[in-house]
Amino acid sequence: MAFWLTAGPGARAGDGSHAPAHRQTVTVEPGETLWDIAARHAPESDPRRTVDRIIDVNSLSGPVVQPGQQLRLPAR
C-alpha cells in the first residue's frame, strides 16, 4: 500500500501513461517498400532495424505492404 500512495496516479496499470502522445503515420505509396519508408523516416539508423521496428509497431506478419496502407512509425 505504501507504494501506491507514493507512486501517484500515473502508476495505475493500463492508464496509457507510457504511450507516446502523438505517433506519426505514413500512407504507403505505389512502388514503395518498407525499406524506402525506413530510410526516409530514420536516415541516421540502420534501415534493417527500422524495418523490423515498423513491422513490430504495426503487428505485420512480414515485410510486404500495399499501396494505400496506413503504417504507424516507431518513435525515434
What does this structure look like?
This protein has 76 residues and is mainly alpha-helical. The chain has helices at 2-7, 34-41, 47-57; strands spanning 25-27, 70-72. Helix content is 33%, strand content 8%. The chain has a two-stranded antiparallel ribbon with strand order 1-2. It is globular.
- Biggest pleated sheet: 2 strands, antiparallel
What radius of gyration results from the CA coordinates? Answer: 17 Å
**What order do the strands of the largest sheet run in, or round the barrel if closed?**
1-2
Give the DSSP E fraction (strand runs of 2 or more residues): 5-15%
Average pLDDT, rounded to a whole number, is 81
Task: Determine the number of helices (DSSP H or I, runs of at least 4 residues).
Answer: 3
Share of residues in helices: 25-40%
Order of helices and strands: HEHHE
Uncertain runs = 1-18
Number of strands: 2
- The assigned structural class equals mainly alpha
Q: Give the distance, in angstroms, between the N- and C-terminal Cα atoms.
A: 36 Å
**Quaternary organisation:** single chain
What is the molecular shape?
Answer: globular
Topology:
Blueprint: H1 2-7, E1 25-27, H2 34-41, H3 47-57, E2 70-72
Antiparallel strand pairs: 1-2
Main attributes of the structure:
mainly alpha, 76 residues
Write a concise synopsis of the structure shown.
33% of the residues lie in helices and 8% in strands.
